């Protein structure tokens, strides 16, 4: 590192706050703040630790925004999510995120002028364009209206044969809504066919069971998708996608998130759209985590995660580039947000030693997303990232405690080892159990998360450290769909409609610990603060001022 590099990365000393205090940064996934209510699982659950932190308001506890424009999403109607949430927490600035960047590229038509589209366009003359991704208007991983525009635009730019391989949602949108989304898509495809484009749905399956695994938790999920999308093989075969989804949903236990894989076949029982040599493939999700594994399978010549049987010679582009370090995929339609100079990178340049940990399903959140969608370490000598293997094949409502305790114990050991200045964890329960829609299980999950926080705070107490406890977005605090006046909506079956998705709610942030000067308190002059203000705050606790272009710190040091 040259001296100019060193200057670039050097953080100013904080004028009042000391260095050398161990800092625990705890992110509760899916833990928003909402009024007491039977569908507020955090309220119903026994959460003494988080409740006691709240008593520190307004000086040591406050709310911050975790959705919409505060985290770089297109509008304030967009709920928060882990990608944008952890990006903001780690980067300390607000970046226009994938959802927004794709909107802009589609609106201006620039998407069709870029390298990525030109690359796949080469296949349009003789090959098929395959579009693979999540079919919903949830706006977390993808958006239906973007798919619709891309379909239309691709046809206008020469695609003559198009096949869609969709994943049903039920996680960012209400369970059962898959049918309506397929109907909308079928309608668009019919219009394209009327214009002479051979456009059809070729395969499908539920996002949690087919294709959209993440952080290499379970490659079988990706394999099931590969078999249907590439090989044209699946346990279920249907003549139409609407029939497929309706039939598969007749099973009383069926759930959009977990629909089994199926392929669409013609009158002779032949799959209508396997992926073959000479085809183009676009994965139309803008969000990275749940596309990285498929991207590897589609792009890497050397690949040993499962037997691909056939590795077609295709031209593949992601909607975005999903991994900035691996440069994966190498072709993409829209450039990802350029998240640079994240707090993690600054801190290693200033000799801060970091330990980060979660279980597999959230591991990349406190590492990859935290570091601006970048895999790997900045400096392996100063960082240690520990992944606790998640349970595989067990729904999280069956094991709602997940690995909360194990994560807390790893954090405890890391703090007690005195080898780290920052110990950062993600506690997944509120989110992962919340997404199952199982209220009782979510309550158990929230209690487990609270106990994990207690273990970490007790350890901070023991070593004279500082803690920051916050969350990335809401989920468990509201499990009911509501009307405009906030009353739970009742479905045709007479039951309250369950909300499996994230929310628009703000999240708490609490600070404290024996290492925090008693005169440190939340400022009152930034009411509109959001997740992006946390990074500067954490830097202060390490004894540094944040870079001047970071969103301002949440704290001040009182004079008295
Ligand atoms: O599971 C996921 O992929 C999303 C919801 O679509 O949740 P989170 O943003 O909390 O990871
Ligand atoms: Mn999350
Ligand atoms: Mn979630």
TrEMBL record:
Report which superkingdom the organism of origin falls in.
Eukaryota
EC number(s) in its UniProt entry?
5.4.2.12
Q: What SUPFAM superfamilies does the entry give? A: 2,3-Bisphosphoglycerate-independent phosphoglycerate mutase, substrate-binding domain (SSF64158), Alkaline phosphatase-like (SSF53649)
Cofactor(s) needed, names only, are: Mn(2+)
Q: Look up keyword Metal-binding and say if it applies.
A: yes
A GO CC annotation recorded here is: cytoplasm
Q: Which GO terms describe its molecular function?
A: manganese ion binding; phosphoglycerate mutase activity
Positions bound to Mn(2+) 1: 431, 435, 502
Catalytic activity annotated for this protein? (2R)-2-phosphoglycerate = (2R)-3-phosphoglycerate
Keyword annotations from UniProtKB, A to Z:
Glycolysis, Isomerase, Manganese, Metal-binding
UniProt xrefs under Pfam families: iPGM_N, Metalloenzyme
The keyword Ion transport belongs to this UniProt entry's keyword annotation: no
Its annotated pathway reads: Carbohydrate degradation; glycolysis; pyruvate from D-glyceraldehyde 3-phosphate: step 3/5
Q: So where does Mn(2+) 2 get bound?
A: 29, 82, 472-473
Per the entry, what this protein does is: Catalyzes the interconversion of 2-phosphoglycerate (2-PGA) and 3-phosphoglycerate (3-PGA). Required for guard cell function (e.g. blue light-, abscisic acid- (ABA), and low CO(2)-regulated stomatal movements) and fertility (e.g. pollen grains production).
How is the subunit organization of this protein annotated in UniProt?
Answer: Monomer.
To which protein family does this belong? Answer: Belongs to the BPG-independent phosphoglycerate mutase family.
Q: What is this protein called?
A: phosphoglycerate mutase (2,3-diphosphoglycerate-independent)
Q: What gene is it encoded by?
A: LOC116206864
